[in-house]
Specification:
The protein is of the alpha+beta class. It contains six helices and six strands, in the order H-H-H-E-H-H-E-E-E-E-E-H. It has a three-stranded antiparallel β-sheet. Strand 2 and strand 3 form a beta hairpin.
Length: 149
C-alpha cells in the first residue's frame, strides 16, 4: 500500500498520531494540532478560524499555512474556496461528522461560516475525451439559520 493510501485509511477510521510517521511524513505538533482541530470541528475552517481555535501561541500564522499545505498535499484534508476568496480546510475523516469531500458546501454570507452538505453529492461531470478531472467544488451561498433571523 502506498504511504498516502495508508495515511488516508488510518484517518478514515479516526485520527491516529502515528499516521503521519507511518506514511513517511514528519509528525509535528503544529500538523497534529491543525489536523485535530479540523477533525473536531466537523466543518471547513478558514486559516483565521484555525488560528483562533488553537491555543494562543501554539502556532504562528506561517506555521499554520505550512501545516495546511503539507496536510493537503498528503491527502489528509481538502480545501474549498468561497466567493469571498478565503480557502477553508476540512479533514478527510468519515466519522464524527467531519467532511468526507465530494459534496456541496454552504457558505453563509452573513457570518462567513461554511458547512458541509454531505447528503448532497456533487453532480457527475463528463470530461471531454482524453481529459482528466482533477478536482471539482460547488459552494452554495446564502444565510445560515442564525443570520436569516
Amino acid at each position: 500500500m502506498n504511504p498516502l493510501s495508508l495515511i488516508a485509511t488510518v484517518l478514515q477510521k479516526g485520527y491516529h498520531p502515528r499516521a503521519m510517521d507511518d506514511a513517511g511524513f514528519r509528525r509535528t505538533r503544529a500538523r497534529e494540532a491543525v489536523l485535530r482541530l479540523l477533525e473536531k470541528s466537523g466543518r471547513p475552517l478558514s486559516h483565521q478560524e484555525i488560528q483562533k481555535g488553537l491555543k494562543e501561541g501554539a502556532c504562528d500564522r506561517v506555521t499554520i499555512y505550512r501545516a495546511l499545505e503539507t496536510l493537503h498535499s498528503a491527502g489528509l484534508l481538502h480545501r474549498i474556496q468561497g466567493s469571498d476568496g478565503l480557502w477553508r480546510f476540512c479533514a478527510h475523516r468519515s466519522t464524527a461528522g467531519a467532511c468526507p469531500s465530494n459534496h456541496i458546501h454552504f457558505l453563509c454570507q452573513g457570518c462567513g461560516k461554511m458547512s458541509c452538505l454531505p447528503e448532497q453529492p456533487l453532480p457527475w461531470i463528463q470530461a471531454p475525451k482524453g481529459a482528466a478531472i482533477l478536482s471539482k467544488q460547488l459552494v452554495v451561498h446564502g444565510l445560515c439559520a442564525a443570520c436569516a433571523r
